[in-house]
Amino acid sequence: MQLNLPEKRYYSIGELAKAFDVNASLIRFWDKEFDEINPKKNAKGDRMFRPDDVKVLQMIYHLVKERGFTLEGAKTHLKEGKKKTLNNFEIITKLEGIKNQLLEMKKGL
Q1: C-alpha dihedral, 78 to 70 to 14 to 86, nearest 10°
Q2: CB–CB of 57/27 below 8 Å?
Q3: Exposed (0-12), middle (13-18) or buried (19+): which is 47, by Cβ within 10 Å?
Q4: How confident is the model over 63-94, as pLDDT tens digits?
Q5: Backbone angles phi, psi at 92, to 5 degrees
Q6: Model pTM?
Q7: CA-closest candidate to residue 40, choices 6, 18, 64, 8
Protein backbone atom coordinates (compact mmCIF):
# COMPACT_ATOMS: atom_id res chain seq x y z
CA MET A 1 0.00 0.00 0.00
CA GLN A 2 1.38 3.36 -1.05
CA LEU A 3 0.77 6.12 1.49
CA ASN A 4 0.57 9.74 0.50
CA LEU A 5 2.08 11.28 3.60
CA PRO A 6 4.36 14.32 3.67
CA GLU A 7 7.79 13.81 5.22
CA LYS A 8 7.48 14.82 8.85
CA ARG A 9 8.86 13.82 12.22
CA TYR A 10 5.45 13.04 13.70
CA TYR A 11 2.02 12.14 12.34
CA SER A 12 -1.28 12.45 14.14
CA ILE A 13 -3.65 9.52 14.40
CA GLY A 14 -6.10 11.37 12.13
CA GLU A 15 -3.49 11.76 9.38
CA LEU A 16 -2.69 8.05 9.54
CA ALA A 17 -6.33 6.98 9.62
CA LYS A 18 -6.97 9.04 6.50
CA ALA A 19 -3.84 7.72 4.73
CA PHE A 20 -4.73 4.09 5.52
CA ASP A 21 -8.45 4.72 4.88
CA VAL A 22 -9.42 3.20 8.24
CA ASN A 23 -10.98 4.53 11.43
CA ALA A 24 -8.74 6.12 14.05
CA SER A 25 -10.05 3.52 16.49
CA LEU A 26 -8.36 0.77 14.44
CA ILE A 27 -5.01 2.57 14.67
CA ARG A 28 -5.52 2.92 18.45
CA PHE A 29 -6.40 -0.79 18.68
CA TRP A 30 -3.29 -1.81 16.75
CA ASP A 31 -1.23 0.49 18.99
CA LYS A 32 -2.49 -1.38 22.05
CA GLU A 33 -2.12 -4.84 20.51
CA PHE A 34 1.31 -4.57 18.87
CA ASP A 35 4.34 -3.82 21.05
CA GLU A 36 6.31 -2.77 17.96
CA ILE A 37 4.33 0.48 17.73
CA ASN A 38 5.58 3.09 20.21
CA PRO A 39 4.05 6.50 19.54
CA LYS A 40 5.01 9.50 21.63
CA LYS A 41 2.27 11.39 23.43
CA ASN A 42 2.05 15.17 23.46
CA ALA A 43 0.99 17.30 26.43
CA LYS A 44 -2.69 16.66 25.64
CA GLY A 45 -2.10 12.91 25.53
CA ASP A 46 -2.56 12.62 21.76
CA ARG A 47 -0.55 9.90 20.05
CA MET A 48 2.16 11.19 17.72
CA PHE A 49 3.55 8.51 15.41
CA ARG A 50 7.11 8.57 14.06
CA PRO A 51 8.05 7.34 10.57
CA ASP A 52 9.27 4.05 12.11
CA ASP A 53 5.83 3.55 13.65
CA VAL A 54 4.25 4.24 10.25
CA LYS A 55 6.40 1.48 8.68
CA VAL A 56 5.22 -0.98 11.33
CA LEU A 57 1.61 0.11 10.78
CA GLN A 58 2.08 -0.45 7.04
CA MET A 59 3.37 -3.97 7.72
CA ILE A 60 0.44 -4.69 10.03
CA TYR A 61 -2.01 -3.33 7.46
CA HIS A 62 -0.40 -5.46 4.76
CA LEU A 63 -0.49 -8.63 6.86
CA VAL A 64 -4.00 -8.20 8.28
CA LYS A 65 -5.93 -6.37 5.57
CA GLU A 66 -4.19 -7.45 2.37
CA ARG A 67 -2.93 -10.95 3.19
CA GLY A 68 -5.71 -11.93 5.61
CA PHE A 69 -3.60 -12.77 8.67
CA THR A 70 -5.28 -12.93 12.07
CA LEU A 71 -3.96 -10.53 14.70
CA GLU A 72 -2.17 -13.39 16.45
CA GLY A 73 -0.70 -14.53 13.15
CA ALA A 74 0.50 -11.01 12.36
CA LYS A 75 2.04 -10.66 15.84
CA THR A 76 3.88 -13.96 15.46
CA HIS A 77 5.02 -13.10 11.95
CA LEU A 78 6.36 -9.71 13.07
CA LYS A 79 8.16 -11.12 16.12
CA GLU A 80 9.71 -14.13 14.39
CA GLY A 81 10.93 -12.48 11.25
CA LYS A 82 10.74 -8.73 11.69
CA LYS A 83 13.84 -8.01 9.62
CA LYS A 84 12.85 -10.43 6.87
CA THR A 85 9.26 -9.14 6.92
CA LEU A 86 10.49 -5.55 6.70
CA ASN A 87 12.78 -6.35 3.76
CA ASN A 88 10.00 -8.20 1.93
CA PHE A 89 7.55 -5.42 2.67
CA GLU A 90 9.94 -2.77 1.35
CA ILE A 91 10.44 -4.79 -1.84
CA ILE A 92 6.68 -5.17 -2.29
CA THR A 93 6.16 -1.45 -1.73
CA LYS A 94 8.82 -0.54 -4.30
CA LEU A 95 7.35 -2.98 -6.83
CA GLU A 96 3.87 -1.53 -6.31
CA GLY A 97 5.29 1.94 -6.95
CA ILE A 98 6.96 0.76 -10.16
CA LYS A 99 3.71 -0.92 -11.24
CA ASN A 100 1.79 2.32 -10.67
CA GLN A 101 4.36 4.27 -12.69
CA LEU A 102 4.12 1.79 -15.55
CA LEU A 103 0.33 1.95 -15.52
CA GLU A 104 0.50 5.75 -15.69
CA MET A 105 2.91 5.51 -18.63
CA LYS A 106 0.57 3.04 -20.35
CA LYS A 107 -2.33 5.49 -19.97
CA GLY A 108 -0.25 8.14 -21.70
CA LEU A 109 0.29 6.02 -24.82
Answers
A1: 20
A2: yes
A3: buried
A4: 999 889 999 999 888 887 666 666 777 787 78
A5: -60, -45
A6: 0.72
A7: 8
Mean residue pLDDT of the chain comes to 88
Contact status, residue 60 vs residue 69, Cβ threshold 8 Å: no
CA dist., res. 74 & res. 67, Å (int): 10
- Distance (Å, rounded) from C-alpha 88 to C-alpha 35? 20
Give the model's pLDDT for residue 82: 63
As a CATH number, domain 11-107 is 1.10.1660.10
70 φ, ψ to 5°?
A: -75, 170
pLDDT digits (tens, 9 = 90+) for 19-66: 999 999 999 999 999 988 999 999 999 999 999 999 899 989 989 998
